[in-house]
Hints:
Number of strands: 5
Number of domains: 1
CATH class: Alpha Beta
Strand content: 5-15%
Shape: globular
Mean pLDDT: 93
CATH architecture: 3-Layer(aba) Sandwich
Order of helices and strands: EHEHEHEHEH
Strand order of the largest sheet: 2-1-3-4-5
Structural class: alpha/beta
CATH topology: Rossmann fold
Low-confidence stretches: none
Number of helices: 5
Amino acid sequence: MNDAAILVVDDNPDHLELTVMALSECCDVSSIATASDGVEALDYLFGRNSHAGRDTRQQPRLVILDMKLVRMHGLEVLKALRADPRTAVLPVVMHSSSTEKSDIAACYANGANSYVRKATDYDELRRKMRQVYAFWMTVNERFSNSG
């Protein structure tokens, strides 16, 4: 998928599927790309490996990024995004079950735009994803480094 508006990154297949289901109530599911870990997310965003040839000038409008990923921690993904001019200003919402103040602080210190605690049930997840979508996709003014 080359024209994703939202990239959802989560290494738990159930969380990934539920997040996409919740978002699909707000937007066309075809506008949502997914990655099962941080490496795959960076490959998608930077047009590498299985995503070689993807036009990296066309980035999603929003990344919803799980913090505690197994293969590559979400904070490392966030740092890589902020270090690359193609993704430096890409809005990133960290999505984690952690309630640790140090985790939340680390996300913001490394350039996260928002921190949303994972929901404890599907109705709460739907509500949170509707709010995330409404703000980042309809209220927030987008800035793009590309022309």
